[in-house]
Inverse folding.
């Protein structure tokens, strides 16, 4: 979410609270801090991996929850550092924040990822390697490592490839890290969970590209919306979410998964479809991209916890 502030408001990045208290302005500043510092993405990581535990029928491990708080926090702050040119056009308020606190965010990201690796270390080499997947993907995604003769310097610049890398890297850590730490085998729910998270993250990474189409085009970043336009991109995401629904519901019914898991799949897919359908029509793109998609599993994971707490009380 990109929030603008009135010059006399007294809150915002670059000003101190002066004058009469403004509760709304203070609230916006707190929300923007959560978004711009990537703490909100860390909360999303916790919600996603908790959902992964529930789908796979595993008991949540505090160490994995901590890792999935730290890893998104680190990776997204590293990514913001390499995306300053695009952010200066697409997200001026976020750019102002990251410019002011750049060193703190950069070094904090390094410390956060180092802590995540240290937490994974007691669970073995495989757990460490899985924990490092988003970092390696983030480096390939944002850092210009490809040869100049290739035509692209970063995976971020390659249409579709960027979304494939982001979707697959997050799906891998969200699904397999709980398995590795718990010593559990791969099951049908594990594979379906992998499909669900890949699809969700792919869509969640493509929709900000729809919002940022003009800025990306000016910066020379050829995203899917830049290449095929907004309407066609929306149709592609519709088809992808529908195909994911067929796979999850069809295989889930065939594997006789519990009604609770089937309802969770249906809820997540329905939630995603509402975001796609509402984009630019009923809800602002900033709210959809920065809150409803980047925080989708904060909402879904929170709902799961609420149900788990209330059911024993009600029954």
């Amino acid at each position: 979410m990109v929030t603008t502030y009135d010059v006399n408001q007294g809150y915002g990045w670059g000003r101190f609270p002066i004058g009469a208290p403004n509760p709304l302005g203070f609230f916006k500043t707190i929300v923007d801090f959560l978004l711009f510092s990537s703490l909100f993405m860390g909360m999303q990581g916790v919600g996603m991996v908790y959902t992964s535990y529930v789908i796979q029928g595993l008991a949540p491990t505090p160490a994995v929850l901590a890792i999935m708080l730290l890893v998104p926090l680190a990776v997204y702050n590293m990514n913001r550092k390499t995306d300053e040119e695009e952010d200066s056009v697409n997200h001026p308020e976020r750019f102002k924040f990251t410019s002011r606190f750049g060193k703190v965010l950069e070094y904090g990201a390094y410390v956060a990822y180092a802590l995540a690796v240290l937490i994974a270390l007691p669970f073995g080499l495989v757990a460490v390697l899985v924990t490092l997947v988003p970092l390696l993907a983030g480096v390939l995604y944002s850092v210009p490592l490809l040869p100049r003769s290739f035509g692209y310097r970063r995976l971020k610049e390659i249409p579709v490839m960027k979304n494939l890398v982001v979707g697959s890297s997050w799906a891998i850590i969200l699904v397999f890290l709980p398995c590795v730490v718990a010593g559990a085998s791969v099951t049908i729910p594990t594979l379906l969970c992998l499909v669900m998270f890949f699809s969700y993250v792919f869509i969640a990474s493509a929709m900000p590209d729809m919002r940022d189409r003009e800025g990306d085009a000016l910066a020379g970043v050829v995203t899917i919306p830049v290449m095929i336009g907004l309407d066609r991109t929306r149709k592609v995401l519709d088809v992808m979410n529908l195909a994911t629904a067929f796979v999850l519901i069809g295989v889930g019914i065939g594997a006789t998964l519990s009604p609770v898991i089937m309802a969770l799949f249906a809820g997540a897919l329905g939630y995603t479809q509402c975001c796609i359908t509402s984009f630019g029509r009923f809800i602002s793109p900033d709210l959809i991209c920065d809150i409803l998609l980047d925080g989708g599993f904060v909402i879904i994971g929170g709902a799961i916890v609420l149900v788990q707490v209330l059911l024993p009380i009600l029954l």
In short: Residues 230-254 form the longest helix (25 residues). Confidence is low (pLDDT under 50) at residues 1-18. The chain has 15 helices and no strands. Residues 22 and 51 are 37 Å apart (CA to CA).
